[in-house]
């Protein structure tokens, strides 16, 4: 059993990991940048180590400093959270070389699934349906044009090492291809240090469906109810819900078997999430796998009635999963809204600053607020702008949405601008309420109407 674990992250996810560790009687060590010295996660930890300046590459991306902190404080293991180094195979390998257990999959599997081209080939070998596209990487504009003509426009150019919505361009025809190819290649190099690209058919009327899975070292694999993450802006999720209103129990079981087979095929352990596009005929096409915890793991916890971070820790300790597949049937409906410090009326520009007043809704049935900030805290310009995740879990979508709107209306913050009113309007949208939306709905339809009413003149 672990006695002490280092949390290699910040903000709300660091808070949740520390709380899980304390529930399991494990001491938590926080690492922090100079910008986060007074943050909640630092105060909650049993020990804390400053690892550098405010810029991520000075601190939360500094592998050597983080592993040094883990070794010097006597940590048995390290939890990477999400973002930063959570999907960095070199970091996972470095931890293990230094005698610190990385709470996640092996470095080998992270490396395999982190390269989208290699991941697609691995999924094909496991019988997982994939989106029509290039057979491997695209090396030139001429090759890109040839593949585009084979699968038909529109297409998506994607960075092989991409993630987080970066390194992606939609291309409508030959005229757009040259610039898109050059821009995507440049962005991929800057963001990921890898400029290799691949191409896929753009399924613009599809839903973005995810299924999270967890596997222990004893061969047990459990899949969780799917999440509908189609409500996105600029490839970033806005609202997530589980289960998807268009997926039947039989389809859920079918998708679950697909991910179980894939998990076995790549010898995956710990938790990860398979992302699919689902077309109008309810066919699934693999997009990518996230080899880590995700922001929206919360709604999966609520609907499946499990504690995923604790299960991750148990798996890393070599224990068997604390639940079975039959324990993880759908229980009600859950949705998550992300409160971000941004100004929707000004093209969602970031809104860093000091929070001078804050009221978050606690103490009401079915409502969970995951946050790493409080009054007088500062939303830093150096990191993600998320203030809080609000999760509502009730028997039906109608009940949950109604309560979420009430909770958002009660949510009060001063000192920074937020997307609260945008979320409230989206929750009232008839297409959202009916489940009649795809992964382009916000940008193609909803946002245009909203901006007419609320955008800057």
From TrEMBL:
Record's keyword terms, sorted: ATP-binding, Biotin, Fatty acid biosynthesis, Fatty acid metabolism, Ligase, Lipid biosynthesis, Lipid metabolism, Magnesium, Manganese, Metal-binding, Nucleotide-binding
Annotated catalysed reactions: N(6)-biotinyl-L-lysyl-[protein] + hydrogencarbonate + ATP = N(6)-carboxybiotinyl-L-lysyl-[protein] + ADP + phosphate + H(+)
Q: Does the keyword Mitochondrion apply?
A: no
Q: Provide the GO biological process annotations.
A: fatty acid biosynthetic process
Q: What pathway is this protein a component of?
A: Lipid metabolism; malonyl-CoA biosynthesis; malonyl-CoA from acetyl-CoA: step 1/1
* Cofactor(s) annotated in UniProt: Mg(2+); Mn(2+)
According to the UniProt entry, its GO molecular function terms are: ATP binding; biotin carboxylase activity; metal ion binding
Q: Where is the Biotin carboxylation domain?
A: 1-447
Domain ATP-grasp spans what residues? 120-317
**What Enzyme Commission number(s) appear in the record?**
6.3.4.14
User: Its quaternary structure?
Assistant: Acetyl-CoA carboxylase is a heterohexamer of biotin carboxyl carrier protein, biotin carboxylase and the two subunits of carboxyl transferase in a 2:2 complex.
What does the protein in this record do?
This protein is a component of the acetyl coenzyme A carboxylase complex; first, biotin carboxylase catalyzes the carboxylation of the carrier protein and then the transcarboxylase transfers the carboxyl group to form malonyl-CoA.
Protein name (database record) = Biotin carboxylase
Q: What is the organism lineage in this UniProt record?
A: Bacteria, Bacillati, Bacillota, Bacilli, Lactobacillales
> What gene name is given for the protein in this entry?
accC
């Amino acid at each position: 059993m672990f006695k002490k674990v280092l949390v290699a992250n910040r903000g709300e996810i660091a808070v949740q990991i520390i709380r899980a560790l304390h529930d399991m009687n494990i001491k938590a060590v926080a690492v922090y940048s100079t910008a986060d010295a007074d943050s909640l996660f630092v105060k909650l930890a049993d020990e804390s180590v400053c690892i550098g300046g405010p810029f991520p590459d000075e601190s939360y991306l500094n592998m050597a400093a983080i592993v040094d902190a883990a070794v010097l404080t006597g940590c048995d293991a390290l939890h990477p959270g999400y973002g930063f180094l959570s999907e960095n195979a070199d970091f996972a390998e470095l931890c293990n070389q230094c005698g610190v257990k990385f709470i996640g999959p092996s470095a080998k599997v992270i490396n395999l699934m982190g390269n989208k081209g290699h991941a697609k080939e691995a999924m094909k070998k496991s019988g997982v349906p994939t989106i029509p596209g290039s057979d491997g990487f695209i090396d030139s504009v001429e090759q890109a044009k040839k593949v585009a003509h084979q699968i038909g426009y529109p297409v998506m150019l994607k960075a092989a090492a991409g993630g987080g919505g970066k390194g992606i361009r939609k291309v409508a025809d030959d005229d757009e291809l040259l610039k898109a190819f050059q821009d995507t290649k440049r962005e991929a190099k800057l963001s990921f240090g890898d400029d290799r690209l691949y191409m896929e058919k753009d399924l613009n009327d599809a839903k973005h469906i995810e299924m999270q899975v967890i596997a222990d070292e004893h061969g047990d694999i459990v899949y969780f109810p799917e999440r509908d993450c189609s409500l996105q802006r600029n490839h970033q999720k806005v609202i997530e819900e589980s289960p998807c209103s268009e997926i039947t129990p039989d389809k859920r079981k079918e998708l679950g078997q697909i991910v179980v087979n894939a998990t076995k095929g790549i010898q995956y352990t710990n938790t990860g999430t398979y992302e699919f596009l689902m077309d109008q005929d309810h066919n699934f096409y693999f997009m990518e796998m996230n080899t880590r915890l995700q922001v929206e793991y919360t709604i999966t916890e609520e609907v499946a009635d499990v504690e995923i971070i604790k299960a991750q820790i148990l798996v890393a300790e070599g224990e068997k999963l604390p639940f079975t597949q039959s324990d993880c049937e759908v229980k009600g409906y859950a949705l998550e809204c992300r409160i971000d410090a941004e100004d929707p009326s000004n093209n969602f520009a970031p809104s860093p600053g000091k929070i001078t007043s804050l009221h978050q809704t606690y103490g009401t049935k079915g409502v969970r607020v995951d946050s790493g900030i409080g009054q007088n805290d500062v939303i830093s310009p150096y990191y993600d702008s998320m203030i809080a995740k609000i999760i509502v879990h009730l028997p039906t979508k109608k009940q949950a949405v109604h309560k979420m709107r009430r909770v958002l209306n009660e949510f009060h913050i001063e000192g920074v601008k937020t997307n609260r009113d945008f979320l409230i309007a989206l929750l009232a949208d008839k297409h959202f309420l009916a489940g009649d939306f795809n992964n382009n709905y916000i940008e193609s339809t909803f946002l245009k109407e909203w901006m007419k009413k609320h955008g800057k003149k």
